[in-house]
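pinned: reference chain
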Amino acid sequence: MANLKGSTFEKQIKDALIRIDARGTKRTGDARFDGLAHSNAVLEKRKQILEDFTRFLNGEGFIEKLNSAMTPEIIAKFLQERTAMMALVTIENYIANFSALIKALRLKNITINENADYEFFQREKDKLGRPDSNVFQTGRYMDEDAVQGILDQLPHRSHVVAIIQYKLCFRASEALLIANNPNKYLLALTLSGVKGKGGQFYPEKTVDQDIANLIRSAVPISRSTYYRDQRKALCGKNRPHDLRLTHICDLYDSLRDAGEPHEQSMLKASKASNHHRPSTTGGYQARR
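pinned: its structure tokens
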């Protein structure tokens, strides 16, 4: 592991951008989660964060290498100041981009404090996120009859994907991945090895025989075909992601009905959706 090259922050930023520049490399497979800049837009975002961070460090009188300032204490102070006037969505995107930048620099052998990890940035999202009445669109929860009405209208190719979303709490992109590669992810009645957003693997899920048989009956389907089928079935009232939202809300309700405390129910529902923060369940509940 090494430090960024250069005697000034400007030179160190240039070195960082050269290292993480992956334009021209397709963002597929594991490269989807490497944090590198595979487009001009992403590279520009990383550059903006580095410039914001160095302005903060200059104001603090910091004179060491830029990467040595990437500690939880300094980053937390920077984020608190930088996001003070941002909307909730902007805060989450900014922190996610900073987290991806750190991941990319580590991938390129730059030394960064090990405690500035994924979990740290998730905690910062919790701490800095603020309610914003313009963020959430409510009324997205679907009762059992509404869900069944949608499922009944979908052709088999999309019905399978929708069931995976609704019954197993996957995003549309992940459900499509499973439906297009059932033998890769489903062994007997165990679904495993599914990589979600941010490169985090879902916990293993045990499915019943009916769902296992349905997944094995899946036929290849593209994202555009699935969304086209869904638009016809939903009639503009909801969107595919609401199947996942409905699962999370139902899971939380069932845990509470079984006597689980509120916080524990929030955490379990979040983990089922491959998140680590109880507040994520709260975000889904707010859209209910």
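why pinned: The longest strand covers residues 186-187. Residues 40-60 form the longest helix (21 residues).
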